[in-house]
Hints:
mainly alpha, 434 Repressor (Amino-terminal Domain)
Amino acid sequence: MNKIKDFRKKRNLSQGDIAKIMEVKQNTVSQWENDTRTPSVKQGLKLAEILETTAEELYK
């Protein structure tokens, strides 16, 4: 289980906000949150940085 959505909401960011920062489509962020797609290691690290956490915490 991942916690991307929880951390995103704590930071008051939308899926669109994350998508813009990450330079991916909003649908991709939705897939990450729903565990139908997994970000690459590089994307996961960047996502953790944006959400002010660690990659480990996102996927705990």
